[in-house]
Structure to design on (233 residues):
């Protein structure tokens, strides 16, 4: 069941991306020139995306993939090119619109279906693999576990996701709001420790049958994010 905190944060993200930062994020995820600060974020996101995709099977032919929080669709396109049938979901209609415009008409050998909505909506169906890149970083740690358990209930293979690691520097940056200029600032990012996630996955009955696999951190200027893999135990 979705909590009030989750729903409120989701609504704030929808408002931010659709009304405040749509053009900023469309530019950030393109090849257009950007400031030095945003260039470090772009480079970090490109590196993280490559890592997450590399943790999926080399061939995704016949596999159903959920891109949870697809943004402008770059990861979905890569997965489709590797044969996956991708359902790419984002709460922000403006970003999904950009994703649809940028995606190839025929992403053979796979397919992409872009949807506007909640990434946790069970109506999206069941999947072989799921990816949630930087789409859980705005939620408190308890909400992250609720989201992961909701996804895990509909996944037969693996879940790869990112979180904002709880480091002294990153916590300070988020506290004083230096990640983006004030006009472009997203709802608060919630740093969480790797130790908490490891303990929570191991002890939460909702995550029975799952364990943590690989994990790695990407630091690129103003972008810091950590990838984690969940696999069947």
């Amino acid at each position: 069941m979705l909590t009030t905190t989750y729903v409120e944060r989701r609504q704030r993200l929808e408002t931010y991306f659709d009304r405040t930062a749509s053009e900023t994020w469309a530019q950030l995820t393109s090849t257009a020139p950007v400031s030095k600060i945003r260039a470090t974020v772009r480079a970090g996101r490109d590196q993280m995306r490559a890592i997450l995709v590399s943790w999926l099977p080399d061939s995704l032919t016949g596999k159903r993939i959920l891109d949870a929080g697809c943004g402008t669709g770059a990861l979905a396109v890569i997965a489709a090119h590797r044969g996956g049938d991708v359902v790419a979901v984002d709460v922000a209609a403006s970003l999904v619109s950009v994703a649809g415009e940028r995606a190839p008409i025929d992403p053979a050998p796979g397919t992409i279906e872009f949807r506007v909505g909640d990434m946790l909506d069970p109506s999206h169906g069941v999947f072989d693999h799921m990816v949630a890149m930087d789409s859980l970083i705005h939620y408190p740690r308890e909400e992250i576990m609720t989201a992961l358990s909701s996804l895990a209930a509909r996944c037969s293979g693996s879940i790869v996701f990112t979180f904002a690691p709880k480091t002294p520097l990153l916590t300070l940056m988020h506290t004083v709001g230096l990640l983006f200029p004030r006009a472009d600032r997203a709802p608060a990012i919630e740093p969480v420790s790797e130790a908490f996630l490891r303990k929570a996955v191991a002890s939460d009955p909702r995550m029975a049958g799952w364990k943590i696999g690989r994990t790695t951190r990407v630091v690129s200027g103003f972008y810091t994010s950590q990838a984690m893999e969940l696999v069947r135990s």
